[in-house]
Batch of 2 targets.
Target 1
Amino acid sequence: MKVPYRNKAVVTKEKIINYLLNINNPDGKPKAVYFRSKGFNETNTGIFEKRLLNIIHTEEVEREETSLYGKKYVIKGEILAPNGDAVTIR
């Protein structure tokens, strides 16, 4: 199954900067260290956004979970990092 309403999916620049790339965010720090090591930073958030959205649009849902915010769809996909590495993310 694909993510329902995937055509309405949004990945904000703020989420990328304040969470995925923020080494000062206690929840996001491990992700930030990893993504920064692969060449992602504040100068290429648009590329990061497009690659994340591509996973949402093309990959199948692995599982559904319920969180405080509603349904969460877990997807696994691969993106090309700025340093040339293929990065598998979930």
Target 2
Amino acid sequence: LNRLKKKEKVAFLELAHHVARSDGDFSEEQKTIIAKYCMEMQMEDIEYDETTFDIYNTLDKIQNHRSRKIVLL
């Protein structure tokens, strides 16, 4: 994850938050996992807003083929 560019890191966190909240429950375990992602990427967590989340816009931020593999894994 630390190999991603800044905008790709933000996109990754947007996706992580979206998946974590997809069942309507954002548990402490999920918060801990996202905090670990942030530590690995050496950045602060993002402000996630479910009402404005657009998966297509988020995925467009990850254009490098290598970065797409990193995010997918």
